[in-house]
Amino acid sequence: MLSGKTSKLSVIPLGGTGEIGKNLIAFEYEDSIIIIDGGVKFPDEELLGIDLVIPDITYLEKNRDRIKGLFITHGHEDHIGGLPFILPKLMIPIYGTKLTIGLVQAKFQERTPYPESLVNIIQPGERIQAGAFEMEAFRVTHSIPDAVGYSLLTPVGRVVYTGDFKVDYTPIDGQNMDLGKLAAWGEEGILALLCDSTNAERSGVTLSEMVVGKTLREWFERAEGKIIMASFASNVHRIQQAIDAAAEIGRKVCVVGRSMENVVRTATELGYLKLPDEEILVDSSEVGNTPPEQLLVLTTGSQGEPLAALTRMATRSHRQINVLVGDMVIIAATPIPGNEKLIGKTINHLYQIGAEVVTKEMGQVHVSGHANQEEIKLVIRLARPRFLIPHHGEIRHQAALRRIGNSLGYSDQDIALTQLGSRVELSSNSMEFGERVEAGSVYIDGLGVGDVGQIVLRDRQQLAQDGVVVVIAALSKTKPYRIMSGPDIISRGFTFMKEAGTLVDGAKKVVGNTLEIQLQKDQIEWSVLKSNIRDSLSKYLWEKTRRRPMILPVLLNT
User: What share of residues in the chain are helix, strand, coil (percent, to 5)?
Assistant: First the structure.
């Protein structure tokens, strides 16, 4: 909990720092808290059975009455995907641009609607008073329309949060990043700049999204069969360019995958995605009536997710669309760290079928939505903040941005590298770390939110690695205690029982001896008895197999 009132501004990252994904950051001054974003992170291979990872908002729940609002930068999953799980616990006003709010509301329709009275659409340049904070959104360029950063005018000075950005001088929608606003604030004085550090290790500048459109047109013209393009569903700019290129060469477009369908529908309804004509879209159920050489399929699955549409097409398990010999598959995305193996597996399936696969290594079918070093330098130079706080990136990305700051004259003391739960305290002329707050990850597994923790994950890992052995025995209820039946051994994922007679017989003997020793005592402690069975059998199985299965004793009274 917060320790009383303070005259300092606290910056508290609860997600999106030291990691890629589940972005959420809180700003706190006396009795006012505002939040920016609430995203998800997709699980890595170690999180067995986990669907999504969201930020731990325990600290925010404890201080719910002081929260004045949640402000959203843009509509990517790592910034809005956690809101259906987070907002119902807080019931606070939310603010975002038109497309962003549209995508958030679409996500809520999949679960539980959020009260319309708490939903607010804002325009860049509009000022909102939220407790001690005057919030103002400013336009940035990213890989989705309507992306913004935020200026927070606070009692100790102005803080600028860039959100995800790149400096794209030829944006698809013609909406340039508002560098003039940033420069004007810099003239007035900016206390701290929280800057996107994702690409801080990359030199030069990020290529314009316009480059992708030209490259897609070139690949489309070469294709002889149907074209299947996998991309991030929320990359509306890329979807627009793909549809435009398809229209120019006379192809129909089929949108496949729930998230892709939702984004295309929402963006079209709100006017951010413009169809050349209404008849260009065909339903997936009608794909069979369209000649392959006249079809473009826009789909999810660019990260090799096992249940995504592209993966099911590649494994011939999709109900309506399969990849055939001669088809061209374009993966217009870059792997999220940890997904490389999944993508590689999907690509191998595609090649085995006989498809032509195009990735970013073979041509500019993907460019990043994040700023490289020279763009970061430009933003820092324009903003001229007193302090610099790298955000949105792993520790190596933050360290790279610190080096950029050093090259521009900032000392390490003027740059704060944060972790989840860090509290950076700012006054009008100082920056220091305060007491940390509770932070971490909450796992979503099916309908369960937070009911799977480290202990359950450890059990799942043990089951996946060494399997389970169940020991069943029936014991008498009264003295003299004796074994009425068993012990029997059942195994799953450990060894094939029919071919392991000697091992099973030895295991039964070990358990039987352990039971006989314990049953000679005057009093039976069932917990102790089960523990002894686990210990003795675990030791035996380790000696014989060098494996440690999970052992579950089941003792019955008869």
Answer: 35, 25, 40
